[in-house]
Design brief:
Number of strands: 13
CATH topology: TIM Barrel
Domain Luciferase-like: 22-386
Number of helices: 15
CATH superfamily: Luciferase-like domain
Bound molecules: flavin mononucleotide
Organism: Rhodococcus globerulus
CATH class: Alpha Beta
Shape: globular
Largest sheet: 8 strands, parallel, barrel
Family: Belongs to the NtaA/SnaA/DszA monooxygenase family.
Structural class: alpha/beta
Number of domains: 1
Keywords: Flavoprotein, FMN, Monooxygenase, Oxidoreductase
Enzyme class: oxidoreductase
CATH architecture: Alpha-Beta Barrel
Strand order of the largest sheet: 1-2-3-4-9-10-11-13
Strand content: 5-15%
């Protein structure tokens, strides 16, 4: 079996996924505004040969647009949160190999500016940046960016299509290879015949270009995506190089992977052009008893209110709450349809209801000795998973325990890398710096020459 890939799934905030855990005396996420917490974590992850640190991000509050948000604020539940892209530039200069992935929603920045920011980070990190493309699920998030309401699910994916198209034109088409000369003798910094305007004209955006930064080591950053609805999967099949799934079982993961790969092939790509990362959390013990005892301790800290507030499913659009016994089948959401389906598939012995959501989310964990955990990871790998995005209970403990105790066992089994491959993030994962010729971004290489 080939080595699995491991990303640390984190957020520049106090309470990201596992709510309530920040109250533990060893939880350093309470001080997330301190860059030292992140630099130390990034260095530890690099020591453990993690592939990447992967930042989630949101640009608004969970809950109904005009609903209460006291749970969010009281629990530090993704508020306060800070900009991951700015933080990544500090991590870039304190690490050498670690991939630097961050989430950015298509509504939060104009694509011209976003493309420039990515290129700058890719230069600073020497080609280690990845973008998790999200379309947003938050009503409040939309209202922070000039919109009256969060656009419909389908409309959001159409928006994303145009957004990525603009960025691809800038990253891939605006500067030809060899445009940057830095020729002191001839006095030519860049060759004007090789730097092009893109003249994008679309439904939402008008962008002339040219792209202002010079081509960065990867040009297009490594692209992740996490949608699991029909629209989300179709988008992933076209654009994603890494898909983030949180399937409830390996069998459901296998179905999802097979279907997304089928769509990728239909879109002109190859099955192996897309890697799949399952989201997962661990509780590690030197014995099974110790692992169970640690699990018990985690249970004591978890906040049910936090999980419900996070999932948006606790409240209706008018801000009133769904009764806890409401079947999930009756929950209407314009947020993440894919996640709701996954939650419903997690329960097979009764009709899942709103009250089950906290247990379902916090229950996504593998508890045991390093050997038992390794056994489980093999099961996921056999289902087609290429790697894992690891959720944390506590920063840095969840990662240091995994690095110090589980990774050595995985290495013995050939399931974790023993050294970093050289080069950019994409080079490490796919063996090339740039997107391959089957990716939609590649169509813009060398196409704008006639128009400049
Ligand atoms: C594991 C996972 C992590 C996600 N992380 C973020 C995030 O950090 N920020 C965000 O705005 N959306 C995030 N999302 C939302 C998705 O990117 C996507 O926009 C959402 O699931 C709606 O798409 P879908 O209905 O196609 O699943 C995440 C979704 C999943 C499943």
């Amino acid at each position: 079996m080939s080595p699995l890939r491991f990303n640390a799934f984190v957020m520049n905030t106090n309470s990201h996924i596992h709510h309530g855990q920040w109250r533990h005396p060893d939880a350093q996420q309470v001080d997330f505004e301190s860059v030292d917490v992140w630099v130390n974590l990034a260095k530890k992850l690099e020591e453990g040969l993690f592939d990447a640190i992967f930042f989630a991000d949101i640009v608004g509050l969970y809950g109904a647009g005009d609903g209460p948000y006291d749970v969010n604020v009281r629990e530090g539940l993704q508020i306060p949160n800070h900009d991951p892209a700015v933080l990544l530039s500090a991590l870039a200069v304190n690490t050498e190999h670690l991939g630097l992935a961050f989430t950015s929603n298509v509504l939060q920045q104009h694509p011209f500016h976003f493309a420039r920011q990515i290129s700058t980070l890719d230069h600073i990190s020497k080609g280690r940046v990845a973008w998790n493309i999200v379309t947003g699920t938050l009503e409040n998030g939309a209202r922070n960016f000039d919109l009256e309401h969060l656009p419909d699910h389908e409309e959001r994916y159409k928006w994303a299509q145009e957004y990525v198209d603009v960025t691809y034109k800038l990253w891939e088409g605006s500067w030809d290879e060899g445009a940057l000369l830095k020729d002191r003798e001839r006095g030519i910094y860049s060759d004007p015949s090789k730097v092009h305007k893109i003249y994008h004209r679309g439904e939402r955006y008008r962008v002339d270009g040219p792209h202002l930064p010079s081509p960065s080591p990867q040009r297009t950053p490594l692209l992740f995506q996490a949608g699991a609805s029909d629209d989300g999967r179709a988008f992933a099949a076209q654009h994603a190089e890494g898909v983030f799934i949180i399937a409830p079982t390996p069998e459901i993961a296998a179905d999802n992977i097979r279907e997304t790969r089928r769509l990728a092939v239909a879109a002109g790509r190859r099955a192996e052009d897309v890697k799949f990362y399952q989201g997962i959390a661990f509780v590690v013990g030197s014995t099974e008893e110790e692992a169970k005892r640690k699990e018990q301790e985690l249970e004591e800290y978890l906040s049910i209110d936090g999980y419900l507030a996070h999932m948006n499913y606790a409240a209706k659009e008018d801000g009133t709450s769904y009764p806890p016994d409401t079947p999930l089948a009756d929950v209407e959401t314009n947020a993440s349809k894919g996640l709701l389906t996954w939650l419903r598939q997690s329960i097979t012995d009764h009709e899942p209801v709103v009250a089950d959501v906290a247990a379902l989310l916090s229950g996504r964990r593998i508890v045991g000795t390093p050997e038992q955990i390794a056994d489980q990871l093999e099961v996921w790998q056999r289902a087609g998973v290429d790697g894992f995005n690891i959720f944390n209970w506590r920063i840095p403990d969840s990662y240091t325990e995994f690095i110090d105790h589980v990774l050595p066992v995985l290495r013995e089994r050939g399931l974790a890398q023993t050294e970093y491959a050289p080069g950019t993030f994409r080079q490490k994962v796919f063996g090339s710096d740039y997107v391959n010729e089957r990716h939609p971004a590649a169509q813009y290489r060398g196409t704008f020459g006639g128009k400049s």
